[in-house]
């Protein structure tokens, strides 16, 4: 992915290329922290992915993050990864996951529970990934807020062209030609969750909204925007 940029840097020592990596897991997947030498024998990590990126970059990279309403994100993730198929299965697994997370948080810090490889593999549904504030805090400790452009899936779905224009502006690039923008807007989605059988049960949604409430409030505060509370009035 970075070969062309690396070749140009090797030849001339500099490059005008803007190269991106779209690995979604980089934002939240800190499970390998115990393998980093500086974290040896620690109960919580001192060095994480943001620290490693900061070490190798002379100037801060620019980060594009798109967040989805946590409850819908979780159900889509659940079906897409084949954890289960039906709303009833989902409800049972959500109940188990909430209990497991709350039990862990009663005995450990937030960072221990959310970055635990063991707990990750035992959870019946990846409930912790929707607590965006936990992971954003780690990135904001290392990089300035101005290095991040955060949007929502609702914004992207409702006005893709405007969302992309703002991304180009954030990257310091000129507006795309109309023909190129039109090609992008007509592109087919690569990942579509199939085989959803029914909608999230009301009792499941209530359980998850209660679980995510504090995290969403922290996310809205971190980003200075109430749309990340995911209420009907603030969603796009």
Automatic annotation (TrEMBL):
One protein family per Pfam = Sulfotransfer_1
Extract one GO BP annotation from the record. Answer: hexose biosynthetic process
List, for all copies, the residue spans of the domain called Sulfotransferase.
38-216
Q: Supply the InterPro entries for this chain.
A: CS_Sulfotransferase (IPR052654), P-loop_NTPase (IPR027417), Sulfotransferase_dom (IPR000863)
Give the molecular function GO annotations.
N-acetylgalactosamine 4-sulfate 6-O-sulfotransferase activity
Recorded hits in PANTHER family, A to Z, give: CARBOHYDRATE SULFOTRANSFERASE 15
Q: What is this protein called?
A: Sulfotransferase domain-containing protein
- Source species, please? Plakobranchus ocellatus
